[in-house]
Protein: 15-hydroxyprostaglandin dehydrogenase [NAD(+)]
Organism: Bagarius yarrelli
Amino acid sequence: MHTYKKKVAMLDVNEAAGQELQVQLNQQYGSEQTQFYKADVSSDQQFTDVFQKILNKFSHIDIFCNNAGIVDEKNWEKTVSINLSGVVRGTYLALDHMKKQNSGNGGVIINVASLAGLGPFPSVPVYTATKYGVVGFTRALAVRTGV
Ligand SMILES: NC(=O)c1ccc[n+]([C@@H]2O[C@H](COP(=O)([O-])OP(=O)(O)OC[C@H]3O[C@@H](n4cnc5c(N)ncnc54)[C@H](O)[C@@H]3O)[C@@H](O)[C@H]2O)c1
Protein backbone atom coordinates (compact mmCIF):
# COMPACT_ATOMS: atom_id res chain seq x y z
CA MET A 1 0.00 0.00 0.00
CA HIS A 2 1.28 3.46 -0.90
CA THR A 3 1.30 6.22 1.66
CA TYR A 4 1.07 9.61 -0.01
CA LYS A 5 2.66 12.34 2.05
CA LYS A 6 1.12 15.68 1.24
CA LYS A 7 2.53 19.00 2.28
CA VAL A 8 0.21 21.41 4.03
CA ALA A 9 0.11 25.20 3.97
CA MET A 10 -1.99 26.71 6.77
CA LEU A 11 -3.30 30.27 6.65
CA ASP A 12 -4.82 32.04 9.66
CA VAL A 13 -4.90 35.45 11.39
CA ASN A 14 -3.86 33.83 14.66
CA GLU A 15 -0.09 33.83 14.32
CA ALA A 16 0.72 32.34 17.73
CA ALA A 17 -1.59 29.35 17.26
CA GLY A 18 -0.44 28.87 13.66
CA GLN A 19 3.25 28.85 14.55
CA GLU A 20 2.66 26.44 17.41
CA LEU A 21 0.69 24.06 15.21
CA GLN A 22 3.36 24.21 12.52
CA VAL A 23 5.99 23.07 15.05
CA GLN A 24 3.76 20.25 16.32
CA LEU A 25 2.85 18.98 12.85
CA ASN A 26 6.43 19.13 11.59
CA GLN A 27 7.56 17.13 14.62
CA GLN A 28 4.91 14.54 13.91
CA TYR A 29 5.10 14.32 10.11
CA GLY A 30 8.60 15.54 9.31
CA SER A 31 10.21 18.92 8.95
CA GLU A 32 9.13 21.08 6.04
CA GLN A 33 5.83 19.19 5.71
CA THR A 34 3.75 22.01 7.12
CA GLN A 35 4.11 25.75 6.67
CA PHE A 36 2.06 28.41 8.42
CA TYR A 37 1.25 31.78 6.83
CA LYS A 38 -0.39 34.71 8.55
CA ALA A 39 -3.13 36.45 6.59
CA ASP A 40 -6.63 37.82 6.96
CA VAL A 41 -9.00 36.24 4.43
CA SER A 42 -11.15 39.37 4.45
CA SER A 43 -8.22 41.37 3.03
CA ASP A 44 -7.87 40.99 -0.71
CA GLN A 45 -4.26 42.13 -0.63
CA GLN A 46 -3.16 39.89 2.26
CA PHE A 47 -4.92 36.78 0.95
CA THR A 48 -3.66 37.28 -2.61
CA ASP A 49 -0.08 37.98 -1.50
CA VAL A 50 0.06 34.95 0.78
CA PHE A 51 -1.55 32.74 -1.86
CA GLN A 52 1.24 33.74 -4.23
CA LYS A 53 3.85 32.96 -1.57
CA ILE A 54 2.29 29.52 -1.09
CA LEU A 55 2.40 28.92 -4.85
CA ASN A 56 6.03 30.01 -4.99
CA LYS A 57 6.91 27.43 -2.35
CA PHE A 58 4.62 24.51 -3.27
CA SER A 59 3.87 25.30 -6.96
CA HIS A 60 0.99 22.79 -6.96
CA ILE A 61 -2.27 22.72 -5.00
CA ASP A 62 -4.25 19.47 -4.83
CA ILE A 63 -6.75 20.41 -2.13
CA PHE A 64 -7.77 23.90 -1.04
CA CYS A 65 -10.07 24.32 1.98
CA ASN A 66 -11.84 27.56 2.87
CA ASN A 67 -12.48 27.05 6.58
CA ALA A 68 -12.09 30.42 8.34
CA GLY A 69 -15.34 31.54 9.90
CA ILE A 70 -16.61 33.58 12.82
CA VAL A 71 -19.90 34.16 14.61
CA ASP A 72 -20.26 37.86 15.40
CA GLU A 73 -23.72 39.27 14.90
CA LYS A 74 -22.72 42.69 16.26
CA ASN A 75 -19.87 43.18 13.76
CA TRP A 76 -22.03 41.81 11.01
CA GLU A 77 -20.05 43.32 8.15
CA LYS A 78 -16.92 41.63 9.44
CA THR A 79 -18.79 38.33 9.61
CA VAL A 80 -19.87 38.72 5.97
CA SER A 81 -16.31 39.71 4.93
CA ILE A 82 -14.76 36.62 6.49
CA ASN A 83 -17.45 33.96 6.13
CA LEU A 84 -18.68 34.78 2.64
CA SER A 85 -16.33 37.20 0.85
CA GLY A 86 -13.30 35.29 2.16
CA VAL A 87 -14.69 32.03 0.78
CA VAL A 88 -15.44 33.58 -2.63
CA ARG A 89 -11.96 35.14 -2.73
CA GLY A 90 -10.21 31.90 -1.75
CA THR A 91 -12.24 29.85 -4.19
CA TYR A 92 -11.39 32.10 -7.16
CA LEU A 93 -7.71 32.23 -6.21
CA ALA A 94 -7.57 28.43 -6.06
CA LEU A 95 -9.73 27.89 -9.14
CA ASP A 96 -7.66 30.21 -11.32
CA HIS A 97 -4.56 28.25 -10.44
CA MET A 98 -6.15 24.79 -10.61
CA LYS A 99 -7.46 25.43 -14.13
CA LYS A 100 -3.83 25.69 -15.24
CA GLN A 101 -2.48 22.61 -13.49
CA ASN A 102 -2.88 18.94 -14.43
CA SER A 103 -4.04 19.97 -17.91
CA GLY A 104 -6.98 21.82 -16.42
CA ASN A 105 -8.27 18.86 -14.41
CA GLY A 106 -6.49 19.38 -11.24
CA GLY A 107 -7.83 20.06 -7.84
CA VAL A 108 -10.43 19.94 -5.14
CA ILE A 109 -11.91 22.96 -3.36
CA ILE A 110 -13.72 22.44 -0.06
CA ASN A 111 -15.84 25.25 1.36
CA VAL A 112 -16.87 24.80 4.98
CA ALA A 113 -20.48 25.84 5.59
CA SER A 114 -22.72 24.75 8.45
CA LEU A 115 -26.15 23.35 9.19
CA ALA A 116 -26.97 27.07 9.40
CA GLY A 117 -26.48 27.09 5.63
CA LEU A 118 -29.30 24.61 5.15
CA GLY A 119 -31.87 25.91 7.63
CA PRO A 120 -32.07 29.14 9.63
CA PHE A 121 -30.49 29.52 13.05
CA PRO A 122 -32.75 32.27 14.48
CA SER A 123 -30.23 33.44 17.10
CA VAL A 124 -27.59 34.20 14.44
CA PRO A 125 -29.26 35.59 11.31
CA VAL A 126 -26.11 37.10 9.79
CA TYR A 127 -24.11 33.91 10.35
CA THR A 128 -27.03 32.04 8.78
CA ALA A 129 -27.00 34.37 5.77
CA THR A 130 -23.27 33.88 5.21
CA LYS A 131 -23.56 30.09 5.37
CA TYR A 132 -26.55 30.07 2.99
CA GLY A 133 -24.29 32.16 0.77
CA VAL A 134 -21.45 29.66 0.99
CA VAL A 135 -23.78 26.78 0.10
CA GLY A 136 -25.36 28.68 -2.81
CA PHE A 137 -22.07 29.94 -4.20
CA THR A 138 -20.44 26.53 -3.98
CA ARG A 139 -23.37 24.72 -5.59
CA ALA A 140 -23.64 27.24 -8.42
CA LEU A 141 -19.94 27.09 -9.13
CA ALA A 142 -19.87 23.30 -8.98
CA VAL A 143 -22.56 23.16 -11.67
CA ARG A 144 -20.84 25.79 -13.79
CA THR A 145 -17.44 24.14 -13.65
CA GLY A 146 -19.01 20.75 -14.24
CA VAL A 147 -17.70 19.20 -11.02
N1 LIG B 1 -17.71 24.69 15.65
C1 LIG B 1 -18.87 24.36 15.15
O1 LIG B 1 -19.77 23.84 15.86
C2 LIG B 1 -19.17 24.59 13.70
C3 LIG B 1 -20.34 24.06 13.15
C4 LIG B 1 -20.60 24.25 11.80
C5 LIG B 1 -19.71 24.93 11.00
N2 LIG B 1 -18.57 25.44 11.54
C6 LIG B 1 -17.67 26.18 10.65
O2 LIG B 1 -16.43 25.54 10.65
C7 LIG B 1 -15.39 26.48 10.40
C8 LIG B 1 -14.34 26.38 11.48
O3 LIG B 1 -14.97 26.70 12.71
P1 LIG B 1 -14.36 26.30 14.13
O4 LIG B 1 -15.50 25.96 15.00
O5 LIG B 1 -13.24 25.33 13.96
O6 LIG B 1 -13.86 27.72 14.57
P2 LIG B 1 -12.46 28.17 15.19
O7 LIG B 1 -12.70 29.55 15.73
O8 LIG B 1 -11.88 27.13 16.06
O9 LIG B 1 -11.57 28.25 13.88
C9 LIG B 1 -11.72 29.27 12.94
C10 LIG B 1 -10.35 29.75 12.56
O10 LIG B 1 -10.52 30.82 11.63
C11 LIG B 1 -9.56 31.79 11.94
N3 LIG B 1 -9.97 33.09 11.41
C12 LIG B 1 -10.93 33.92 11.91
N4 LIG B 1 -11.00 35.03 11.18
C13 LIG B 1 -10.05 34.91 10.21
C14 LIG B 1 -9.63 35.76 9.15
N5 LIG B 1 -10.19 36.96 8.94
N6 LIG B 1 -8.65 35.33 8.33
C15 LIG B 1 -8.05 34.14 8.53
N7 LIG B 1 -8.40 33.29 9.52
C16 LIG B 1 -9.40 33.68 10.35
C17 LIG B 1 -9.47 31.80 13.45
O11 LIG B 1 -8.29 32.41 13.91
C18 LIG B 1 -9.54 30.31 13.75
O12 LIG B 1 -8.26 29.72 13.77
C19 LIG B 1 -16.09 27.85 10.33
O13 LIG B 1 -16.31 28.20 8.98
C20 LIG B 1 -17.40 27.60 11.05
O14 LIG B 1 -18.41 28.50 10.64
C21 LIG B 1 -18.28 25.29 12.86
Summary: The mean pLDDT is 93.
